[in-house]
Amino acid sequence: MPHQLQTGQELYQFIDRLYPICRSITGNGVRDTLAIISEHIPIIIHEVPSGTKAFDWDIPLEWNIKDAWVKNEKGEKIIDFKNSNLHILNYSIPVDKQVSLEELKEHLFTLKEHPDWIPYRTSYHHQKWGFCMAYNQFKKLKDETYHVKIDSTLEPGSMTYGEYFIQGKTDDEVLISTHICHPSLCNDNLSGIAVAASLAEELSKMDLKYSYRFLFIPGTIGAIAWLSRNEAITHRIKHGLVLNLLGDKGSFTYKKSRQGNAEIDKIVELVLAERKADFRLIDYYPYGYDERQFCSPGFNLPVGRLSRTPHGEFPEYHTSADNMNLISPEKLSESVSLIKTIFSVIESNAVYKSLNPKCEPQLGKRGLYEPIGGEKETKDFQMALLWVLNFSDGKHSLLQIAEKSELPFHVIQEAAKALEKADLLMK
How far is it, in rounded angstroms, from Cα 120 to Cα 127? Predict the structure, then answer.
C-alpha cells in the first residue's frame, strides 16, 4: 500500500528525506529520488542513453560522485562534499592533485553578498572542476599548497526521468511537469516534486474527465528529451503547468503560457482572484524553467508556470540557505490546495446549451427560485442561474460565464448542475 502524502507535515517530511541526496541532470542521485517517489505513485522510469539526439541537443555523459574534498598542508579538510553536496561544482570532472592557492582560487565559487552561504553552481556542458564555499571561509585561506580530490565519474550512461500517466474518460491531457535535477535545495525544487507527487497520488483515486501526465524530469534537457520522444502525442495536451518554488512564504505567481490567453491561463487567474489574496500574473518570456520548452514555437503548448516567489527574486535562491527553514508545511499544503482547485475547474468546465432558449423559463415551478431574498450565497446562486441560462448558447463555457458574471466558478457550476437536473440545459 503506497504511503500517503496528504498533509503539509507529510510533504515536509518527504522533502526532508530527499534533501540529502546529491542530484544532477543525470546519475544515481536522480534514480534514488525517483525510487522514493515510486513509494507513493507507480511511476515509469525511463533511461535515455548518452549521445541520444534530442532535437538540437545530445543527451550528455552520465555524472556520478562519491566524494570530494580540499585539504590544507596539515591534512585538514577545509571543504568537504560530505558536509554539503553544494560544495561541489555540479558535474565536476575527477581530480586528484596538489595545487597552489592561486590555482585553487580559479576553481572556487563564493557569494560575497551572503558570506555565510554556499552557492550552487553547475558546469553541465563544459568539462571543468570546482568547489563552492562560504565567502567568510574563503577569506581565511592561507597561501600554501592544497590537495584537491574529486572522486567522480563522467562516462557513457543515460539520463533518467520519471513519468506517471492517469487515464481519464478522454485522451485529452493535462500535463504536470517538475524538475528533479537540483541537489539539496528545498524550495527549488523539492517543493515542486513533493506537491506534484501528492497531487498525482490524489488524482489516481478520482473519476476524471481528462487524462493526467506527470513528468519528473531533469531541467531543460529532460523536457527537450521528453518532447523529442513524444512529439506525436503533444496534440493531446490541452492544459499544462510547470510546478516549482511552492514551499516559501511568498504569494503565488503565475507565468502565462506563450499563447497568453489559453484556457489554463484564464483558469489559474480566476482561481487566484477568487482566493482574495495577493498574487502576481506574469506574461510569458523565453527564460525560466521548462515552460520555455513546452511553449517553444514548434509546440506552443498551453503550459504555464506556477510558483510562489519566482526564481532569482529571493536571496536564498541557489544557495545553501534554500534549506528546510525556508519552506513550511503550511505553505506546501496551501500550494496543493490551490492546484487541486485549478484541477477542479479544469474538470468541471463545460459548454452547455439551453433547452428553453426563448425567454426565461419559469424557475419557481421547478423549485429553483427563492421568492424571498436573503443570504449572499443564495443571491449569488439566483444570479448564477440567470447568467448560465442566458449564456448557455453552445458557445460560452462555464469559465467564460464566471468571468463575465464575476461570480465564483463553483457557484456557476452548481447553477449549471441544477439547471441540467431540471432538464433546462444539456452539455
Answer: 17
Whether the pTM exceeds 0.90: the reply is yes
Helices 8-18 and 191-203 pack at an angle, to 10 degrees, of 130
List the end-to-end C-alpha distance of the chain, in Å, as a whole number.
38
Residue type for position 146: Y
Residue 129 contacts residue 106 (beta carbons within 8 Å): no
Strands (E), 302-389: 303-307, 351-354
- Annotate 152-194 with DSSP letters as a single string: EEEES-EEEEEEEEE--SSS-EEEEEEE---SS-IIIIIHHHH
Q: Name the grid cell of 182.
A: 537540483
Location of C-alpha cell 421547478: 366
- CA distance linking residue 41 with residue 52, whole number of Å: 28
Q: How many CB atoms sit inside 10 A of residue 373's CB?
A: 9
Q: How far apart are CA 163 and CA 157, in angstroms?
A: 19
pLDDT truncated to tens, each residue of the chain (427 aa)?
Answer: 356 788 999 999 999 999 999 999 999 999 999 999 999 999 999 999 999 999 999 999 999 999 999 999 999 999 999 999 999 999 999 999 999 999 999 999 999 999 999 999 999 999 999 999 999 999 999 999 999 999 999 999 999 999 999 999 999 999 999 999 999 999 999 999 999 999 999 999 999 999 999 999 999 999 999 999 999 999 999 999 999 999 999 999 999 999 999 999 999 999 999 998 999 999 999 999 999 999 999 999 999 999 999 999 999 999 999 999 999 999 999 999 999 999 999 999 999 999 999 999 999 898 887 754 556 667 899 999 999 999 999 999 999 999 999 999 999 999 999 999 999 999 9
* CA torsion, ordered 315, 316, 318, 321, to nearest 10 deg: 150
- Locus of grid cell 491561463: 265
Specify the residue for cell string 528546510: 324
- The answer to whether 131 and 108 have CB atoms below 8 angstroms apart is yes
Strand order from edge to edge, sheet including 62-71: 77-80, 62-71, 146-155, 95-99
**221 close to 25: Cβ distance less than 8 angstroms:** yes
